[in-house]
Amino acid sequence: MQHVIIVIHLMLVLALIGVVLLQRSEGGGLGIGGGGGGGFMTSRGSANLLTRATAVLAGLFFVTSLILSILAGLNRKPTSIIPGGQSAPSVPGAPVPLNSGGGGLLNQLQGAPTAPPAAPSGPQVPQSK
Asked: Which band of pLDDT confidence, cut at 50, 70 and 90, is reported for residue 19?
């Protein structure tokens, strides 16, 4: 489903680019051309047709963009940045009792065995006494 909408979206993008490039320049923007066309349509008829085509293509582009963002959000599952199965307090901002047994990061660090510092492998700096 998502692949079909992406293909439609890309076709709308290409059509929108083409329609915008076909429009007559007002004010001489870059000073080149003048919209081209060479008798393709009258200036009044082409302006109405190209303006309406641009509006319709822009609306369809907006709709397909919304559909793609909704479809992308449906497949997203919430993840936790905290590893493990620890549960958060049920009430946000509620203090956790100190004797709860589960503890927090501080209790886990206090109970962890401390390893002696490793000996440095590089040259030693003389220390003053």
From this structure: very high
Cβ neighbours of 74 (radius 10 Å): 7
pLDDT tens-digit series, residues 29-85: 555 555 555 555 555 666 688 889 999 999 999 999 999 999 988 877 777 788 765
Can you read off the two tokens belonging to residue 125? 């700096």
Residue with tokens 């915008």: 20
Q: How far is CA 105 from CA 31, 116, 119, 121, in A?
A: 67, 21, 28, 31
13's enclosing H/E stretch is: helix 2-22
Residue linked to tokens 């992308």: 72
Q: What is the amino acid identity at position 105?
A: L
